[in-house]
Design a protein that fits this description.
- By secondary structure, the chain is of the alpha/beta class.
- The chain contains 10 helices and 13 strands.
- Strands 3, 4, 5, 6, 9, 10, 11, 12 and 13 form a 9-stranded mixed β-sheet that branches.
- Helix 1 (30-37) packs parallel to helix 2.
Length: 282
C-alpha cells in the first residue's frame, strides 16, 4: 500500500486490534469503540452490519473482532481512508468477514451499490458516527480529511439517516453515536424511518452533563421514544470506570461490561416482527 500521508499504527482493545490511521486529521478513538460495543450478538446466529462513514474502519472492525458471526461492510467516501481501511482489514485477519466499499452515502445510487455487491434493506444493524459539526459553524479544521470528518452540510444529518434507512432491513436496527445536543435533530431526521428510539446518555464523570449519546432505533417500529439510564466513563480521579475499562481494554459489549439488558430485547424483536409485515417508505 502506497500512501501520501503519514500514518500511525495504533492499538485498540488493548492491542487486540492494530489500526493504521492518519497522524494528522480525523483520528478514531473512544466514540468508535463505544459505538461498536453497543452492537449485540445474535445468540450465535449470523448477522450483517454496515458501518456508514467508516473512516479507517475502527468501529466496524471492533464489531467483527468481538462478534464472530457478524459479516461487516465498511462504507467510506475518502479514497485515502478507504485504502487504510482495506489494509486494516487485512492486517487484522478479518478479510473473510469484512469488506470495504468506496461510496458517498449522500448520493450513491442503488446501481452503484449493487455493482459493489451491496443490496438495499439487507443489513440487520447499521452503525454510524456522523460528523459532529455543521459546515460554517466555527473554524474549519486545517486538514481536509479532518474537516470532512468533523463537519457536514446543513442537510447532512438527514442524508445520513436516509442512507441508514435505505440499508436497514425491516425490523433491523440503526445505532448512532453523536453529541448529546444533537439529540433533537437526530430524532427529527429518524422520524418516519425508525421507531422504538432509545437514547443512552454517556457521561464522562458522575454528576457531569452527558457529552455523548448512543441512539438506537428499529426500522418500522411504532414504539415510543425511551431515555435509558446513563453510563459513566471515568471515576473522580479520571480513571476509566470498571465498565469502560472492560469495553476499551477487554473488548466487551456495553451490555456485558455495564450489566445492561441484552439488545435487541425480546420486546424489540416482537415489535420488529410486526413491523416486517408493514411497508416502509424511505
Amino acid at each position: 500500500m502506497t500512501l501520501l500521508m503519514a500514518v500511525s499504527d495504533d492499538a485498540f482493545l488493548d492491542g487486540r486490534l492494530r489500526i493504521l490511521q492518519p497522524k494528522e486529521g480525523y483520528r478514531a478513538g473512544l466514540d468508535a469503540v463505544l459505538l461498536a460495543a453497543a452492537v449485540a450478538e445474535r445468540a450465535g446466529r449470523s448477522f450483517r452490519v454496515l458501518d456508514a462513514g467508516a473512516g479507517v474502519g475502527t468501529a466496524g472492525l471492533c464489531v467483527a473482532w468481538r462478534c464472530p458471526n457478524a459479516r461487516v461492510v465498511l462504507v467510506e467516501r475518502e479514497a485515502e481512508l478507504v485504502a487504510l481501511a482495506r489494509e486494516n482489514v487485512l492486517r487484522n485477519g478479518l478479510d473473510g468477514r469484512v469488506t470495504v466499499v468506496m461510496a458517498d452515502l449522500a448520493d450513491v445510487s442503488q446501481a452503484e451499490l449493487s455493482a459493489q455487491g451491496i443490496a438495499e434493506a439487507s443489513f440487520d444493524q447499521v452503525i454510524a458516527n456522523p460528523p459532529y459539526h455543521a459546515e460554517g459553524a466555527g473554524t474549519a479544521a486545517p486538514h481536509a480529511l479532518k474537516a470532512a470528518a468533523h463537519a457536514m452540510p446543513e442537510t447532512g444529518l438527514g442524508d445520513w439517516c436516509r442512507f441508514l434507512a435505505r440499508m436497514t432491513r425491516p425490523a433491523g436496527e440503526a445505532l448512532i453515536v453523536h453529541k448529546s445536543d444533537a439529540l433533537p435533530d437526530l430524532l427529527a431526521a429518524l422520524s418516519g424511518r425508525f421507531g422504538g428510539l432509545a437514547a443512552l446518555p454517556l457521561h464522562s464523570f458522575a454528576g457531569a452533563s452527558a457529552s455523548r449519546i448512543l441512539l438506537r432505533g428499529i426500522k418500522g417500529s411504532r414504539a415510543p421514544f425511551r431515555l435509558d439510564a446513563w453510563l459513566v466513563l471515568h471515576d473522580a480521579e479520571g480513571r476509566f470506570t470498571p465498565g469502560a475499562e472492560a469495553v476499551l481494554r477487554l473488548g466487551q459489549s456495553l451490555a456485558a461490561a455495564y450489566g445492561l439488558p441484552s439488545f435487541p430485547s425480546n420486546d424489540g424483536q416482537r415489535r420488529g416482527r410486526t413491523a416486517e409485515q408493514k411497508s416502509e417508505r424511505v
